[in-house]
Automatic annotation (TrEMBL):
The keyword Transport applies. GO terms for molecular function: 2 iron, 2 sulfur cluster binding; metal ion binding. Residues 2-50 form the BFD-like [2Fe-2S]-binding domain. This is Bacterioferritin-associated ferredoxin. Keywords: 2Fe-2S, Electron transport, Iron, Iron-sulfur, Metal-binding, Transport. Its cofactor is [2Fe-2S] cluster.
Amino acid sequence: MYVCMCNAVTDSQIREAVEKGATRFGQVRRELGLASQCGKCGILARNIFNQSLELNVEQEQLFYAVG
């Protein structure tokens, strides 16, 4: 789904950035150009980022607990 219409950024791109190691929203914002035009996407983008980061951390913990 498109999160940022101004820069055609999708939720998948945000999740992919987290999977690649982004740990701060500012990193993703700069890399993808989020909230750099009208700013209306900022809250939704941050929510998607936070959820993705939490899921990524949970998956890492499961991996290490078993591994």
